[in-house]
């Protein structure tokens, strides 16, 4: 089955892509670039890095800019998926939704309207297990945004490893934070994964935070041999 | 031991992660379940298990509805069976209920019609179906949404069908079935 993956460049959509590639034929990535940093639907930090990630994956990317207004961004998503169907004859869409009924339901509705299959291979999976799977599979994932107490600038730029997972799980127990950031508490960028033909090297970044909200912004990056 | 039947359109599919694994997770762990694709359920599996759960499928996946002959064992088994979504539709088909197109996606208000051990009153549940069941005389209706029958119970057998996905926001229903 020819599939397009809704791709933000973060850990969940990249792991969903990995699952999809193991079972079906992934023919393109679909990326919504939201101008609204508070988007309900779309991951925002470092979304420009998705162009490099697509190149590293050797997959074409259908990218669409959205102003990120609550319901208009869904129309923009529908148009991007319809364009992927037109350009790449996709038969279905894959998302990295884990817990969010809000996101899953809206993508399901769009796929139903466009007569496309919809798959959410990480759906309801244990969040700690998903983080551990990233490490086991050799994903290099950097924390590129924090948006909830008690996360702060010290977390920005950290790479997800066993020690970081253990600290995130502690925060879940103390503060109820979703360890994988499913509630938007953290955002991530994937710099390398087994299916990447090249890896991303960060050349310049800016890390800035105000209280419990901060972004690790990748200003310049390039692909290098693995 | 639960026999968890993978109702996806093919063995080892991408739908397995979304519709089978979350039910296994509620059941405790994969090692408390034997997972079998619907094309490979054997008499030995049915005799070894205590209960059977039929998984749901992707919205566009109605493969099992073209193959009711693969589910004739539902008529013979004495084991408790819970069918989720495509599982309920398949149960309906095997016992000669009608099926019709009816799409519901997302959180859906559900009303309990008959007192039962698994749920009560009005509640919301996650729906993801394109087909619903018009009950035959073989079933009692335990719950409804505004648009269709949501839960059925066979009058003589211990077979229950749930159209919504209890593994998403109503896990206690699955747990009660597993522990009953």
Q: Could you explain the architecture of this structure?
A:
The complex is a heterodimer of chains A (226) and B (180). By secondary structure, chain A is α/β, with parallel strands linked by helices. Chain A is 34% helix and 29% strand. Chain A is built from 6 helices and 9 strands; from the N terminus they run E-H-E-H-E-H-E-H-E-H-E-H-E-E-E. Chain A has helices spanning 11-23, 49-57, 72-88, 101-113, 127-136, 162-175; strands at 2-6, 25-34, 61-66, 92-94, 117-119, 140-146, 186-192, 199-210, 213-224. In chain A, the strands form 2 sheets. Chain A has a 5-stranded parallel sheet, sandwiched between helices. In chain A, strands 7-6-9-8 form a 4-stranded antiparallel sheet. In chain A, a hairpin with a 2-residue loop joins strand 8 (199-210) and strand 9. Chain B has 180 residues and is an alpha/beta fold. Chain B has one domain (2-179): Class I glutamine amidotransferase (GATase) domain (Rossmann fold), CATH 3.40.50. In chain B, 23% of the residues lie in helices and 34% in strands. Chain B contains 7 helices and 9 strands. The radius of gyration of chain B is 15 Å and the shape is globular. Chain A binds chain B through residues 1, 19-20, 23-24, 92, 94, 101, 105, 108-109, 111-112, 115-126, and chain B through 12-15, 17-18, 21-22, 25, 58-61, 103, 105-107, 126, 128, 130, 167-169.
């Amino acid at each position: 089955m020819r599939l397009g993956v809704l791709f933000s460049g973060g850990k969940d959509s990249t792991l969903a892509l990995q699952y999809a590639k193991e079972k079906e034929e992934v023919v393109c990535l679909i990326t919504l670039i939201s101008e609204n940093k508070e988007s309900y639907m779309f991951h925002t930090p470092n979304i420009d890095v998705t162009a490099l990630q697509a190149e590293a994956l050797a997959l074409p990317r259908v990218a669409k800019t959205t102003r990120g207004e609550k319901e208009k961004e869904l129309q923009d998503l529908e148009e991007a998926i319809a364009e992927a169907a037109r350009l790449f004859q996709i038969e279905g869409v894959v998302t990295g939704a884990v817990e969010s009924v809000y996101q899953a339901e809206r993508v399901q509705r769009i796929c139903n309207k466009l007569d496309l299959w919809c798959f959410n291979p990480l759906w309801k999976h244990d969040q700690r297990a998903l983080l551990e799977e990233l490490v086991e599979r050799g994903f290099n994932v950097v924390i590129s945004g924090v948006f909830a107490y008690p996360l702060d600038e010290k977390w920005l730029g950290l790479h997800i490893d066993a020690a970081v997972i253990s600290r995130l799980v502690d925060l879940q127990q103390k503060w109820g934070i979703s360890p994988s950031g499913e509630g938007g508490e953290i955002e991530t960028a994937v710099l390398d994964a087994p299916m990447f033909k090249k890896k991303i090297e960060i050349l310049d970044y800016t890390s800035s935070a105000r209280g419990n909200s901060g972004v690790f912004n990748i200003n310049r990056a390039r692909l290098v041999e693995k | 031991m639960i026999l968890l039947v993978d109702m996806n359109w093919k063995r080892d599919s991408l739908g397995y992660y979304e519709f089978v694994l979350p039910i296994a997770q509620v059941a405790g762990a994969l090692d408390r379940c034997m997972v079998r694709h619907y094309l490979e359920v054997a008499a030995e599996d049915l005799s070894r298990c205590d209960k059977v759960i039929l998984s749901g499928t992707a919205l566009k996946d109605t493969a099992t509805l073209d193959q009711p002959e693969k589910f004739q064992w539902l008529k013979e088994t004495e084991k408790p069976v819970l069918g989720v979504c495509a599982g309920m539709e398949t149960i309906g088909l095997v016992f000669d209920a009608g099926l019709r197109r009816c799409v519901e996606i997302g959180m859906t208000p559900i009303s309990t019609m008959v007192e039962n051990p698994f749920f009560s009153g009005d509640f919301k549940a996650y729906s993801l179906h394109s087909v619903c069941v018009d009950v035959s005389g073989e079933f009692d209706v335990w719950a409804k949404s505004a648009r269709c029958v949501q839960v059925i119970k066979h009058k003589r057998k211990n077979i229950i069908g749930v159209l919504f996905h209890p593994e998403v926001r109503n896990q206690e229903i699955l747990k009660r079935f597993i522990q009953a």
